[in-house]
Specification:
With 293 residues, this protein is an alpha/beta fold. Helix content is 32%, strand content 20%. It is elongated.
């Protein structure tokens, strides 16, 4: 629901906060602002299971996923108009709504140009055994393991792709970008709140996969000299359940991890072309496997 700026001009300032189209927004306290600002650090996000999100679309995704815990906005910022419908829905669901001054935004924003609307949302990082312990059937999507994927845009895009193409979950290794990183969260387009996510080192992940009967398939760059040793994605169609392993953007997977995999998978590309971006490769393989389910 879009509102014209005149509604902001008509706000009534009271001792208890700001009344805006029938919604009461309490002024955020210094203590609460400090607690939310602390979530800019990965350590605090992991310990509390919460993160800061920005922009009406991501907040709307968190709201619909039941993950939004607090909504904050700058009421005199015209860019906040588009958040009005979300603001009303949040209060209807009993979610606290807080108002911010523009000067306070810099403590929580991760962007140069602030969207004027923020949220504190919950997320859950699963244990490896919990993720592998989920019931698997013939329609279950593969699990995706990201080994030292450092670009937050790639992490977020892979989460978004995994959600869209039915992956069973995503696991990130030590050395990978944190999936709750602000840019990764934005790039995920809400998938952060819907895709099961775990974290763990390669040894523990591979062991859990073996114990659960997974086929471990590692992605390798397409190379004519490796054609006899690398298979096409279609070779995995009868190999359920599958753990797909993607390596670092620049260096790929170390030899020792490739050596213990059940399959090496590559995507044929035109001669002279550079290898596909890791997020694009993930999309191609997940789509190929989805067609067979």
């Amino acid at each position: 629901m879009l509102l014209h700026t005149r509604f902001f001009d008509a706000m009534i300032q009271g001792t208890g906060g700001t009344n805006f189209i029938g919604v009461t927004m309490e002024r955020i306290s210094r203590r609460e602002l400090s607690r939310i600002a602390a979530l800019k650090r990965k350590k605090n996000r992991r310990e509390q299971g919460k993160l800061i999100i920005e922009g009406w679309r991501l907040i709307g995704d968190a709201l619909s996923a039941g993950a939004l815990e607090t909504l904050l906005l700058v009421p005199d910022d015209p860019r906040s108009e588009i958040a009005a419908g979300i603001l009303v829905s949040a209060q209807e669901k009993g979610i606290p709504v807080r108002s911010l001054h523009k000067e306070e935004v810099k403590r929580i924003t991760s962007t140069v140009t602030s969207p004027g609307v923020f949220g504190m949302a919950r997320f859950r990082l699963l244990e490896i055994d919990d993720l592998f312990g989920r019931e698997q059937d013939s329609s279950a999507g593969p699990l995706v393991y990201l080994y030292e994927i450092r670009d937050p845009g790639n992490i977020g895009t892979i989460l978004r792709t995994s959600h869209a193409l039915g992956a069973g979950g995503v696991i990130v290794s030590p050395g990978s970008c944190d999936p709750t990183n602000a840019k990764a969260a934005r790039s995920s387009m809400g998938a952060l709140f819907r895709v099961p996510i775990a974290a763990g080192d390669a040894g523990a992940v591979f062991e859990a996969a073996r114990n659960r009967g997974y086929t471990i398939a590692v992605m390798v760059a397409s190379d004519p000299d490796e054609s006899e040793r690398a298979s096409l994605p279609e070779s995995l169609h009868n190999a359920q359940p599958v753990l797909l392993v993607f390596g670092n953007e620049a260096e790929g997977l170390p030899d020792d991890l490739q050596a213990v995999a059940d399959r090496k998978i590559s995507i044929p590309i035109e001669a002279g072309a550079q290898s596909l971006n890791v997020a694009a490769s993930c999309a191609v393989i997940l789509y190929s496997l989805r067609k067979d389910r």
